[in-house]
Structures are given as C-alpha cells and as structure tokens.
C-alpha cells in the first residue's frame, strides 16, 4: 500500500512528520541487465565511475548531452506531474522521500537511484560512459568557483537569475514540473551556492566517517555531514530533501556519497557486504500500528523504483560488483600542478 504525502510540510528539511508504508514488491517491469554484465548476469566488465574533475572536455560534453536527452524524452511511468524521463527519476525519489532518508534504506536506495540514472543515460540516450561523481573533498570552501559550475563544460552557475534560477549552462531552460518538496509546480532549476556549507565534505569529516566500525554508525555520519554539505553547498532545489533530483548535480553528489559508502565497505568486505541497520522509515505513520512504522531494515527489503527501472532488494545493491550492479570507483587524481613531483635533495 502506498500513502500519499500531499499535505505534509516540506520546508523543514529532514524533519519528517508522517508516513511509512511497505513498498509494493513488484511493478511488473522486466529487468534489463546492465550492458556490462554477461548472459549469466555475472559482472564481467565493470563500468568505471570517475571524478567529474578527471573527465576530458569531450567526456563532460557527452554526459551533459545525455542528460539533456533524458530531459527531452517523454515520461514512461506516467507518475503524477512527470513530463520527461528525467522527471520519472525525480518522482521515484519524491514520492518515498520519507522512508529513504534518515533510515537504513538511505544509502541502499540512493545507490539504486544512481544506477537507474546511469542505466537510462546509457540505454535510452546512447551514453557510453559511466556515472561520474563530484569529488567534494577538493572543492571544500570553493564550490562557487569550481569547474562543476562551468557554463559550457559543467552544470551552469549558482542561480544568478530571478528567483535563484540558473541563468547559464546547459540546463538553464529546463522546466521542472516537480517540487518544491512534495508539491508539483512549474519552476526553474534554482540554486543558492554557499561555500561555507561545503565544509562537511572535508577530508577530515570523510575520514572520521570511514573509521566508524559499523553500518549503524557509518551511515548516520555520512548522511549528516558529507551528504548534507553537498546538498546545501549548491542550495536551491537540490537542497530540498524531497525534490532534490530536480537539479542534475544531485547525481554527481550522491554518486560521491555512494563511493564513500563503498570505500567504507571495502575496508572489510566480508562483514560489510551484509551489514545493514536502521529502520525502514524515518517517520511514524499514525495510521499504522507502531511496530509497522519502525521495523528494522533487512537485506530482503524491496527498494521501490516506481516502475522507472526494476525494483531491487537491499541485498542486490550491497555489492557494486554483483549481478544487478556492475561498476567500480576510480579514485580522484589531482592535476599535475597540485601534485608536484617531490625532488629528493641529498642534503635533506
Ligand atoms: Cu535523497
């Protein structure tokens, strides 16, 4: 059973008040295997997810063009207010925001959503690359001038138009029919860039989260600091916890967060490929029995994609080298001038 949340307050970021439901188990859509999996579904050739800052101009252009393509294709889900294929992904996030944030499903669901976005770019828009990530540790304190906001080889600037609308870049004319929050209104993609808000993505904060001993402690650390920082450094629509996928930068940010989760998992794979904790909802739904609102998340829980792509279980997305997901993260490489060759002087 699905509950609608049309009357919920949307302006208090991450302070959810209502609503939780067990996701519907299956939408009836057949799963199209990743192009990089073989006929048996084994992960044979992993997509290489690289930092946006390490992509060539041609690679950046190819990604931006594919996103524009997704924005030009019509919706296939017919979800309320969805007009384009890009909107379909927003809806899958917006319609269940109350049970995929602040709980055990947060990291698994967003991993699946990043993969869905990557799959649509590749299968429906001819994109040959992988989903890139925004290496945020190196843009701390200087997001407003970073190359992600480049008007030609980036996502446009920080909302200098009326109402904070982005006024340059490839996405300046995109008309959202979703947001803010649970509303579905016609609006521009708007931003409110803050260098100050990016501090939660510092290497020190990341390192602290990676040192946590369990999913139960690592996930809240990642969600509260680096996750919050990226959303609020860009600001505007992407800072809205419910309708945030309305800004294409959402995918660069959450892919970086997913990389951090994988970096943490990779420190002890035998244990951490099965380590899940937290509830299935961050809110209490008064219409349901109390024990139904706050059940523990398990590996068998079904993550609902609302028909955008096939559903997956939490277990399906725990390993990025499995049958459902098939990619790897390439670590960020600093430019040569930021990483000068050390000269070894014999006198020290
Ligand atoms: Cu989210």
UniProtKB/TrEMBL annotation:
Keywords: Copper, Metal-binding, Signal
Molecular function GO terms recorded: metal ion binding; oxidoreductase activity
Name of the protein in question: Tyrosinase copper-binding domain-containing protein
Pfam family, any one: Tyrosinase
Signal peptide positions (record): 1-21
Keyword Signal: yes
SUPFAM superfamilies (alphabetical): Di-copper centre-containing domain
Annotated Gene3D superfamilies: Di-copper center containing domain from catechol oxidase (1.10.1280.10)
Coiled-coil stretches noted in the UniProt entry, renumbered to this chain: none
Domain Tyrosinase copper-binding residues, every copy: 101-118, 247-258
